Amino acid sequence: MTRAGLSALFAHWRRHPLQLAALLLGLALATALWSGVQAINAEARASYDRAAETLGQGALDRLVSDRGLGMAEFTELRRAGYRVTPLVEGRLEVGGRRLSIRGIDPLTAPPGLGTLAIAGDEEALDGLLSEAGLLLVAPETARALSGAEGLPPLRSSANIAQGEAVTDVVTAQRLLGVETLTALVLAPEQPFGLPPLREATEFAYVEGQSGGDLTRLTESFHLNLTAFGLLSFAVGLFIVQSAIGLAFEQRRQTFRTLRALGMPLARLIWLLAGELTGLALVAGTAGIALGYVIAAALLPGVAGTLRGLYGADVSGQLTFDPLWAVSALAIALAGAGLAGAQALWRVARMPLLAPAQPRAWAMASARTLKAQGALAGLLLLTSAGLALFGQGLVLAFACLAALLIGAALALPPLLIAALRALRPLARGPVTEWLLADARQQVPALSLALMALLLALSANIGVGTMVGSFRTTFTGWLDQRLAAELYLTARTPEEAREIRAFAAPQSDAILPIWSVETQIKGQPTQVFGVADHATYRENWPLLSAAPGVWDRLAAGEGLLINEQLWRREGLALGDPIRVTKGLSLPVAGVYSDYGNPAGQLMVGARTLDAAFPGRPRLRFALRLPPEEAPALAREIRDRFGLPAGNLVNQAEVKALSLRVFEQTFLVTGALNALTLGVAGFAILTSLLTLSTLRLPQLAPIWALGVRPQRLGALEVARTLLLAALTWVLAVPVGLALAWVLLAIVNVEAFGWRLPMRLFPADWLWLGLAALGAAALACLWPVIRLTRLPPNRLLRVFANER
Amino acid sequence: MLSARDIHKSYASGGAQVSVLRGVSLEVARGEAVALTGESGSGKSTLLHILGCLDAADRGEITLADQRIDGLGEAARAELRRRRIGVVFQSLNLIPSLDVRQNLAFQARLAGRADAAWQADLAERLGLSEHLDRYPEELSGGQQQRVAIGRAIANRPALLLADEPTGNLDEETAERVLDLLLELARETGAAFLMVTHSARHAARMDRQLTLEQGRLA
Q1: Residue-range definition of the domain harbouring residue A449
Q2: Entry pTM
């Protein structure tokens, strides 16, 4: 019985190969987009970890001395109970390539200093501690260095960035020809009860640089990628549901006959579920392959982002993870189950003597539409309620989901209302028919149009967010990098010398002094800024009291970053206790994108008075931009400053912007893919409907409208529906952008991006949507115009 | 009014050529009502389609109101269908997306001959005045067929063709529909050719033609 049942069910697919292709392709595309994005995210995160591990030492506090530190100091501090570890850094020329050497003590190095590369690798540990030594390098670097002379044995590790080598301190000293240590690095946690190292030694204490700012920004993009993947998956599922729905409706007679011939309902349901599972496995496998191709194509862009953000070479190679493939298959099965659940439910509830004639699958009753509209309204209200009163990231995403699902459900009733509103504008019977017919076709095309709406809304929403981000980020870079050169001296003495050397060639030397303190129980960095036009002209404030900079300079107010301001619900004028004896009112709020922690700005003199004796190692130089590279070179040559201690603003800005452009490329590619999937959804819907359309078109043809004109009218109808969908997608997209910018970002990162509008982009997107719709309807229309008259006449023939 | 001479038509079916019409000749005068009968597969519908410019004959001459209509291209045939011919089918006659008022006026408006007074009169006589804002799916079979008749007549066609217009209706409704068809065809002076299986309906026409295996008996 099972075999006979299966053969009856499969016969349908043999007779409708196009439907089968639509189902498989829809599911494969949905799986591919989702799993592709997941693969990118996983690979990127793994790369982040590697890069962070490689460069993580910058995040740790360290002790330095201009007299040089030796192993004796290290031993002395360890004996005293401090958790410090030696570090030797330098660069080596090997066969014309520069290799950054980092020597660590593998036994005392804290996590984040390169220890990930040797974790659990006893052979590597033995090698490092052996007399010959060992260089741990990235596989790419190992290949490049193979055969180089004078180096210890090489060992590949995926946890090390390209161009870097991690080794033991002694080996590093030997290779670099030095006897001293570069620094003593402090573990983040120090034993309780010991006096702070800051005060216990005479060495200069250099605070770790939190590299988190831009990392947080990239997290925001990963969030977008994930949201995009989910959206693409949903768009793909629309195709699947459309194909499954049609296939089930067309087989109603088969189901009825099978049951009438004695097949139990449960068996029929199992057979259908099995059929769906089989199809999902086939499509999922294809989706995995396609997802891998998509991820491999998009990953170089993401790798470029990482390269720019961390300055580390990250491989753009995608590694195949079996777990990823299994989860992709699971997603395909879940998607097919989700899309097919309604159809299976309908079969389960179908009475044995149900009319064999396919229900008017393509037509939805007014009642259904009303119910759909009511549900949409409820979801949109829920979304608005969550936007206004919801707290937390989960509710922010729930708000997004309610908005998108609500908008998609609202689309058919809104389209019908819009087409009804256009009716008085119709001139002539054909235009009247076109509008009426378009109205009647809305339910049949609703799934495809919903997919288009989601794709367009996502494009507009994410485009607006990315555009706002780009504009804001450019401004943010200008704020943060207004000076031409940024310097961090290794010792106070060196700082003095560099200042003296640079002064004649600079327009201004601006101190960047900061202290870590606690504000309202939260770790907060307090910066002292000079009273200089650099800040007055470049530091755009979100909110400010009159004469804000004068008040800052006079020590009568402070600036606060947006994160702390929002977290604490502060207002202008609210007093903030900076330290004992210093309490200042909030005079302004500034945006500080990416920084998770609180931050304050006070006048430089105020900071000096409140925290005397701080090491003054960091400062910025103002000079004509064209002179910056030469001065940077001179300072580097004269003082031997490591690359990271002297930053040229123009280079960093250009690099950062390039990085972001690359990231936008990834978003753009996903935008195009989602739109493509939506176009495919329209194509499959039109193709599956084309035969059902004949009884509606044949009377028009019989009354004297030529097939070519009918074809043109079909194109016009599809374009009209696509155009109306685009019109409705604009407000939905803007609402989506608003939720992303004003709620998700605030909840996830603590800062809010100003929303900017890009109407030209919407117009281009509208044209793209029309193009996709036109392409989608081209084939069905060509088929229609080439239909022989007898095919149309068969509609009327009594002896069919 | 309508004259057909030596009409031939064949179709390819399963690799073989099947002759459906084998030299059919007929004439229908202005205001005359002619019944076309015959067994299933005798070619009645094919002949009707050819005379209604819905399909083209392989061979033969057709003249409608002194105009040769055989050998015309698709564009010219479409124009004839719009302006000179009214067709009523057994089912699937109406445009589902348009309401009764729009369906009634559709062909006349296509031909640029909309006559509001005539359409209102037609709607009244067809008993459709109460249903003008309803959609085909909301009408009974008889009501739908009356709309189809109204639409075909609204254009005041030279030739009115009907392919088993009462085939799906109960006897009483079928009689009423036929009454209306005959009445309106006579009133407008259209040449009226109706395919029917009903001997009783055929007997009510002015003349009766019978097709047997592609030839008029």
Answers
A1: 366-481+656-800
A2: 0.68
